[in-house]
Amino acid sequence: MRIHINKDGLFCAVTIMFVFATIIVDIFRKLGSGEGIESIRNIIYIFCFLFVIYHIYTERRTKLDIIFFLFFFPLQAFITLLITPEIAPIFSFFILYYFSRDFVGYYLFSRLDDIEILKKNKWLMLVVALSYSIMVMLQGFRTDSYMLSSYNLIIPTCILLLYGMKEFRFIYLLGGGISCLTILLYGARGALFCVGIGVLFYLVRSILKGRVTVKQVIIIACISVGLIFVMINFYAILGKIYEVTGSRTVKLILTGNIVSSYGRAEMYSAFRAEIKEAPLKYRGILADRVLAARMMNQTISRGTYAHNIVYEILYEYGVVLGVPILLFIFYCVGTCIYKVIKKQNDDLYILLVSIFPAGFCSLFFSGSYLNTHYFWMLLGLTYNVLKGNFSKV
Questions:
Q1: Which pLDDT value is given to residue 219?
Q2: Which of 113, 187, 194, 342 could lock 357 by a disulfide, CB 3.0 to 4.6 Å apart?
């Protein structure tokens, strides 16, 4: 007796589980299930990893990109460990994170063939985003989790807002608006910027293509009126909000520090100096953690990194290798966006611009490409598009 598995349906289910994994784990954390958090997290990611291995096996042919990603970065990490033994405290974490999240994210989106996967799960996103937002609001601002909470909300917030505008569905606009408000009040300014980038990309494309409908004009007009009212009463409104919520982002705006780098300028300066001093030096991946930790007066940990993908890659690989790598990444992502725009398929475009801010834009001021799985999801989707797998769309 054979067991028949709907591989395509299971693939989509695992992909959605992977996209929501960080939110699911954080929901359990906020519910107070601290003792079982690691077990829940490990079960989710181990299941996704095992599915990817199963999927690779059923494909019968392992393509070059899979071989490259399976061996190139782990091998580099071992080389770096020999060159810079100081990275030892984070080495095992990187290996585990890379295979369970970076590689899995790349594989799922590089082999994805259902461009409507997020569209079909809008209601699920609405429920999860609203539930999560309410939990964040009830918990209030917390310095130990505001970054995680806000960056978790970027993709579902973009999906809800963009499909809300596309389909003129108030429920999605409301859900996306509440998530966006949660990021503003209890999250990081970078996450709010990323959501803004996603919305801006969608609006600009709609306007340039002349595809703005009457309903969208009404939405934009209502939002504009609301923004004008907010701008007129800007500081009074923010003052009241801060009294109620104690929001970090609101405080930064009121004190005029919203664009403050909070130590990043000094860190960037240190990286520039090191790169200029030895522009040809190959230091290896994770090597930036050592300099970042020194600049932050901390021990080397998963939270010490360059906070900028340009400095991170140039410092790790040197100028000779780093510049071509950066140009290659920019070229591939830019070409992917261009090809998706030419296809004029709203679902594929929304899929891309919902992942693009969290997976690319955020890396210029927060996060590391080595521990931001959204970046690897974007790489996978880029590979998918450039290979022409959506050519029939």
A1: 64
A2: 194
Render pLDDT for 90-127 as a digit per residue (tens, 0 to 9).
999 999 999 999 999 999 999 998 888 888 888 888 99
Quote the CA–CA distance of 112 and 114 in Å, as a whole number: 6
Whether residue 188 contacts residue 153, with contact meaning beta carbons closer than 8 Å, is answered with no
| Separation of alpha carbons 154 and 377, rounded Å | 14
pLDDT at site 116: 85
Cα atoms in the 13 Å half-sphere on the side-chain side of 44:
22
Distance CA 209, CA 23 (A): 35
d(CA 52, CA 62): 12
pLDDT digits (tens, 9 = 90+) for 225-246: 665 565 555 556 666 666 666 6
Q: What element of type H or E holds 139? A: helix 122-139
Going by pLDDT thresholds of 50, 70 and 90, the confidence category of residue 1 is very low
Torsion of CA 271, 274, 275, 276, to 10 degrees: 120
Rounded to whole angstroms, how far apart are CA atoms 165 and 198?
A: 12
Q: Which two tokens stand for residue 296?
A: 């932050």
Note the Cα 18 to chain centre separation in Å.
Answer: 13
Number of H helices, E strands in the chain: 18, 0
pLDDT value of position 314:
95
Q: What is the mean pLDDT of residues 314-322?
A: 94
Distance CA 365, CA 191 (A): 10
Backbone phi and psi for residue 218, each to the nearest 5 degrees, phi listed first? -65, -45
CA geometry: angle 38, 288, 320, nearest 5 deg: 130
Cα angle 48, 52, 58 (rounded to 5 degrees) comes to 140
Instruction: With beta carbons less than 8 A apart as the criterion, state whether 377 and 105 touch.
Output: yes
User: pLDDT-based confidence at 262, cuts 50/70/90?
Assistant: low
DSSP secondary structure code for residue 308 in this structure? S
Q: In degrees to the nearest 10, what's the CA dihedral of 42, 40, 113, 132?
A: -140
Q: Phi and psi at residue 43, in whole multiples of 5°? A: -60, -45
- Phi-psi region for residue 29, left (φ > 0), alpha (ψ -120 to 50) or beta? alpha
Q: Widest CA span of the chain, in angstroms? A: 71
Question: Tens of pLDDT along 203-213?
Answer: 888 777 765 56
